[in-house]
């Protein structure tokens, strides 16, 4: 009977090891996904972030990268602790899981609260950022040494199908328009079908005149991403509860350390 009981205990431990190992693989993949989103944000959306002239949004991307890296490292520690059956590593792994869990819950709740407070009743990332985008467009577009800003503005207007910061009339007071030798109303990137000098006409059939300014589209995009990130972060956090449960069970089932 004693031998049978010991065998059952051993089978339970092996089962927990495999379950925890599977959890760590999934956890590792999740960390890689978070890391990839952070890198994608910096690579693909860095132009938009620079136009907003705010460190908050670039900091958010770096936080995602850091969080993904921490999750990957934690997953590696979890795999080592599971395979080697080291209680000290299991404790470290459990503490790291708990810390990440609390951070993700806090971040998710803050993201949700910010989203609820700001959408759909607020019309701002904030007034300063709105003004910064307008000034950047008016003063730096098509100016010497500001090629990156020009490309970012063109990309923004085409991707979000908008014209100007608040509306197309923002371009009237731009340095580029006022200094032009020939009549220009808006940049060619405001056109629904961009072509050379198509910005000479501001008819709604030709440009994004009635679709709204770019700042509103950009706000909607950022707020939707904020909502998604909050939901995903909270979801992954509760998924970690399963990992913490498996870790505690495995810790209880392991025999005394052989070292």
Automatic annotation (TrEMBL):
- Give the main localization category: membrane
| Record's keyword annotation contains Nucleotide-binding | no
Show the stretches that span the lipid bilayer. Answer: 21-42, 62-83, 90-115, 226-251
Q: Name one Pfam family in it.
A: Tetraspanin
- The answer to whether UniProt assigns keyword Transmembrane to this entry is yes
Keywords on record: Cell membrane, Glycoprotein, Lipoprotein, Membrane, Palmitate, Transmembrane, Transmembrane helix, Ubl conjugation
- Which top-rank group of organisms is this from? Eukaryota
Coiled-coil spans are none
Instruction: Give the UniProt record's GO annotations in the biological process aspect.
Output: cell migration
The record's note on quaternary structure and interaction partners says:
Interacts with integrins ITGA3:ITGB1, ITGA5:ITGB1, ITGA3:ITGB1 and ITGA6:ITGB4 and with CD9 and CD181. Interacts (via the second extracellular domain) with integrin ITGAV:ITGB3. Interacts with ITGA3; this interaction modulates ITGA3 glycosylation pattern. Interacts with F11R. Interacts with RAC1 and CDC42; these interactions mediate physical association of RAC1 and CDC42 with integrin adhesion receptor complexes.
Q: Which family does it belong to?
A: Belongs to the tetraspanin (TM4SF) family.
| Annotated protein name in UniProt | Tetraspanin
Q: Which organism is it from?
A: Seriola lalandi dorsalis
